[in-house]
């Protein structure tokens, strides 16, 4: 069976030096962009970054070549099959959105190829757009001065829905996205969740075999996010290929059949959620918070066989250490762990054992948290 | 164009028109604003007049009817500003709102959007013209009695030429992403150089030469000669030929420039403003 | 005003001037518009005066001067200052609201009024800078000659700026709850353009329109400056205009401050300070 979406060694480099324009304008623009990135990040992660160095992951300088380029997407390849939800998981700026935009024909790749239902996104963009439903991040892609219904009717024509079917199609989608009772109000009076649903309804107008969803639940309240996820699963049941980006790992875990973890523009792992989790050396993740360790973990590592530290966080002020780790053989090694703790004279503040999450996988792969 | 495209075009026109009507104050303002700009010029003309006749003006233009002179110039001038604002500024607004990407995502040529947008702009500006005309009649007793047909023959190709230019300009705005300043200064400069309030012969020599290279100048001049009998710069047939040629030139130019820039913008990924 | 208030105002002034310098559109507003804007009217006036200056006598009989270029510039420059004040100062609170800095500054213990005063002083500084550049351009491009006593003119101009600032405050506050006031700005600046005698002596207006003119502070400012700058009279001969300006300054600034207080209270009671 032909893949609904196929990307082959897709790359996008942005020049850091922009051509044209006044230098002041450029500086200002960069400043504004910088501020926005910051805002988006703080909005998404209330916890401050542990290491401030990776604020704009993905904006890697090609220092070897000495060129001033940003490698937003650096050679990604993957396929999405019909009836499959494919999750793109990664921190902000990892290249998720850039990839989506290339698939959506909004951005031309620097090199590599991408196909939607066998059509090339650069050479056959019209055919590609006929088969795509796209929800871009944010709620700004609708006309605020038109009602929900008017928006859908307008876009239905633009998506070449036959004239006689427009009304029925719009009604059906309004019903399906639970917007029917507010359909005739201006979009400016909608909540974020409603706008997001309307965007999804618009993406479904042409009944496309492929859906690209960029952060579909960003900014939604938990209930709205749950409803949207249920809808995504329904759409998958209908046999559509769905590519979705997110930086919520629970969401990726719950929705996706397969997940690509993307960081600095590269896919660093691609597997089913359980496949990814099984990469960790055990099926349990341990978290231990102790006082008195002072960052020196040798006393534990030396005494506990096959202890694999996933993450280490120190709280300088409280002089406590938080360890996340896996152990090869949980049962026998637990005893060794407690002996080591006792021998080192550490005070245990907290101890949990749980099934690994995608976040643990991400941390193990990149050495830092998703939201850092 | 296929039947499909006509439906799309119609949907775009309806969308633009609806949004225009949803800003009622702006719609009203589009009639009030030209009148506001006319007022200082009109009263300035009065301060140079004796018993309602302006001798200096008459010596320059060959007509004593300065109100009609200014009004006709401003009607063509309003298309200049409509083109720069509707093709430039409103495109920029769609970029900021994020709707431009939704449009570009549909399986249609960007041309349809530009043509739809131009159509509504011509329509709205036409209505404005009538509104201004009516207001000028009520406020200043403005009347035109001569046949309008030949004047429209000049105006229509001129407007088409302007929108051809507008399509190129839309491309420039996509690229520069800052339309306000450029549209503002561009409109004002073009209005000065093409002589919407005074004959271009009153401009200092270097500016006059620039003015004489603009097809609008000839359109305005011919329309005035036809309707109020001013002394034309060149024969009216020559002006008409200039306007017709420029119509084809600008349509082709618009297409070429826009296509090149659109490709470039897709490479840079700057369709939205962040 | 306490020392803290003065320090607040000074800090706002400093911040505003830095931001202004870093924001590139000042090039356009300070360099291009002063050169470009008068052109339309200067060339129109040239047309009206006729190829041989036939109509200058008619103009002199209503305006009292034959220097129609100077006459125009004394009308156009104050109007341009009003226009920039409405757009820049009149939207500064809104800009901060959109950026999110309005809430940040308003949650500090500093007096909000002092902040407004700081911003007003910034506008005064920029207006004077604008004036200097415009006069220089006018001399260079349009052959404008400054006659009359420069100190008197400067005094008159400073007085004229007060009601303009008041109007700016009014707009800055209105915009906080109207969100979108560009249409209103266009209408108000249009009223001033049409009726303050920017390009003509108000004597040519029909009588009932003259009543409206006299309620506009700009009318008196322009008239006084023309009298001093073109005819060369002293303070004594513009007493009436100065008095009207003083009264209208008080009225406009009082309205501005009142609107500011109302907007502040409205924002606090509805919690819309951070909205955009």
How would you characterize the overall build of this protein?
- The complex is a heterotrimer of chains A (372), B (274) and C (276).
- In chain A, the strands form three sheets. In chain A, strands 6-7-8-3-9-10 form a six-stranded mixed sheet, with helices on both faces.
- Chain A is elongated.
- Chain A is of the alpha/beta class and 372 residues long.
- Chain A has helices at residues 23-44, 96-103, 125-130, 148-158, 163-176, 192-204, 222-237, 249-255, 273-277, 298-301, 330-344, 358-366; strands at residues 5-15, 69-80, 85-89, 111-116, 119-120, 132-135, 210-214, 241-246, 258-263, 266-271, 285-291, 307-315, 320-327, 347-354.
- Chain B is an all-alpha fold.
- The longest helix of chain B has 33 residues, at 236-268.
- Chain B has one domain.
- With 276 residues, chain C is mainly α.
- Chain C has one domain.
- Helix content of chain C is 78%, strand content 0%.
- Chain C has helices at residues 3-22, 25-49, 56-63, 68-87, 92-99, 101-106, 112-142, 150-178, 182-195, 207-214, 217-231, 239-270.
- In chain C, helix 4 packs antiparallel against helix 7 (112-142).
- Chain C is elongated and about 65 Å long.
- Chain B binds chain C through residues 25-26, 29, 32-33, 36-37, 39-41, 43-50, 54-61, 66, 181, 185, 188-189, 191-192, 197-199, 202-203, and chain C through 25, 28, 32-33, 36-37, 39-41, 43-56, 58-59, 62-63, 183, 186-187, 190-191, 193-195, 198-201, 204-205.
């Amino acid at each position: 069976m032909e893949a609904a979406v196929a990307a082959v060694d897709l790359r996008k480099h942005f020049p850091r030096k922009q051509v044209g324009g006044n230098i002041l304008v450029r500086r200002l623009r960069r400043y504004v962009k910088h501020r926005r990135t910051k805002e988006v990040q703080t909005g998404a992660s209330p916890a401050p970054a542990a290491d401030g160095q990776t604020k704009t992951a993905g904006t890697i300088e090609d220092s070897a070549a000495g060129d001033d380029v940003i490698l937003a997407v650096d050679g990604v390849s993957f396929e999405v099959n019909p009836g499959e939800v494919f999750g793109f998981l990664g921190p902000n700026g990892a290249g998720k959105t850039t990839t989506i935009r290339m698939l959506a024909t909004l951005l031309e790749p620097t090199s590599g190829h991408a196909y939607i239902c066998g059509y090339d996104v650069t050479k056959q963009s019209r055919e590609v757009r006929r088969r795509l439903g796209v929800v871009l991040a944010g709620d700004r892609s609708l006309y605020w001065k038109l009602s929900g219904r008017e928006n859908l009717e307008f876009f239905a024509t633009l998506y070449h829905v036959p004239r006689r079917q427009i009304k029925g199609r719009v009604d059906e989608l309004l019903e399906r996205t639970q917007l029917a009772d507010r359909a005739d109000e201006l979009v400016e009076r909608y909540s974020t969740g409603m706008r997001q649903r309307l965007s999804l309804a618009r993406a479904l107008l042409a009944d496309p075999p492929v859906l690209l969803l960029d952060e579909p639940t960003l900014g939604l309240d938990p209930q709205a996010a749950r409803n949207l996820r249920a809808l995504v699963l329904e759409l998958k049941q209908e046999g559509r290929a769905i590519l979705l980006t997110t930086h919520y790992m629970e969401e990726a875990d719950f929705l996706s059949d397969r997940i690509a973890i993307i960081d600095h523009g590269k896919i660093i792992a691609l597997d089913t959620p359980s496949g990814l989790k099984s990469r960790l050396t055990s099926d349990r993740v341990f978290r231990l918070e102790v006082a008195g360790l002072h960052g020196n973990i040798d006393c534990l590592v030396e005494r506990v066989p096959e202890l694999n530290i996933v993450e280490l966080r120190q709280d300088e002020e409280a002089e406590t250490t938080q360890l996340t780790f896996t152990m090869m053989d949980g049962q026998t090694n637990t005893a060794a762990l407690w002996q080591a703790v006792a021998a080192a004279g550490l005070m245990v503040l907290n101890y949990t054992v749980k099934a690994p999450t995608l976040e643990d996988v991400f941390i193990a792969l990149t050495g830092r948290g998703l939201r850092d | 164009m296929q039947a499909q495209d006509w439906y799309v075009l119609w949907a775009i026109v309806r969308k633009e028109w609806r949004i225009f009507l949803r800003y009622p104050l702006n719609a009203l303002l589009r009639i009030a604003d030209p009148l506001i700009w006319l007022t200082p010029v009109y009263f300035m003309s009065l301060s140079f007049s004796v018993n309602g006749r302006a001798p200096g003006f008459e010596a320059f233009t060959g007509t004593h009817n300065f109100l009609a002179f200014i009004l006709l110039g401003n009607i063509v001038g309003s298309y200049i500003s409509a083109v720069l604002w509707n093709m430039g500024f409103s495109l920029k607004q769609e970029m900021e709102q994020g709707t431009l990407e939704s449009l570009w995502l549909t399986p249609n040529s960007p041309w349809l959007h530009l043509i739809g947008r131009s159509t509504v702009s011509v329509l709205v500006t036409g209505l404005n013209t009538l509104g201004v005309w009516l207001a000028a009649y009520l406020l200043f007793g403005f009347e035109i009695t001569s046949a309008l047909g030949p004047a429209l023959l000049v105006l229509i190709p001129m407007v088409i030429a302007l929108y051809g230019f507008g399509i190129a300009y839309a491309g420039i705005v996509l690229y520069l992403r800052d339309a306000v300043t450029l549209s503002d200064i561009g409109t004002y400069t073009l209005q000065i150089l093409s002589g919407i309030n005074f004959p271009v012969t009153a401009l200092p020599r270097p500016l006059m030469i620039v003015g004489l290279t603009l097809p609008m100048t000839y359109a305005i001049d011919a329309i005035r000669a036809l309707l109020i009998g001013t002394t034309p710069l060149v024969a009216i047939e020559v002006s008409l030929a200039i306007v017709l040629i420029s119509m084809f030139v600008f349509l082709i130019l618009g297409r070429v420039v826009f296509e090149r820039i659109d490709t470039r913008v897709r490479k840079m990924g700057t369709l939205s403003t962040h | 005003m306490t020392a803290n208030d003065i320090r607040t105002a000074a800090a706002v002034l400093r911040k505003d001037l830095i931001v202004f310098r870093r924001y590139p559109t000042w090039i356009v507003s300070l360099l291009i518009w002063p050169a470009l804007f008068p052109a339309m009217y200067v060339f129109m006036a040239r047309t009206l005066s006729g190829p041989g200056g036939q109509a200058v006598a008619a103009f002199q009989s209503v305006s009292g001067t034959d220097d129609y270029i100077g006459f125009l510039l004394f009308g156009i420059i104050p109007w341009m200052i009003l226009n920039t004040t409405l757009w820049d100062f009149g939207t500064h609170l809104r800009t901060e609201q959109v950026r999110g800095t309005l809430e940040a500054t308003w949650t500090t213990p500093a007096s909000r009024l002092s902040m407004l005063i700081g911003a007003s002083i910034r506008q005064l500084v920029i207006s004077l800078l604008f004036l200097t550049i415009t006069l220089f351009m006018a001399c260079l491009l349009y052959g404008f000659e400054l006659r009359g006593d420069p100190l008197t003119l400067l005094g008159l101009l400073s007085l004229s700026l007060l009601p303009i600032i008041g109007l700016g405050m009014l707009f800055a506050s209105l915009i906080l709850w109207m969100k979108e006031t560009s249409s209103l700005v266009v209408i108000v600046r249009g009223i001033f353009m049409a009726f303050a005698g920017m390009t003509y002596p108000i004597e040519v207006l029909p009588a009932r329109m003259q009543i409206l003119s006299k309620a506009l502070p700009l009318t008196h400012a322009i008239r006084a400056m023309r009298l001093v700058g073109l005819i060369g009279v002293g303070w004594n001969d513009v007493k009436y205009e100065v008095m009207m300006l003083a009264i209208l300054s008080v009225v406009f600034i009082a309205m501005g401050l009142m609107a500011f207080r109302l907007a502040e209270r409205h924002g606090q009671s509805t919690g819309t300070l951070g909205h955009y």
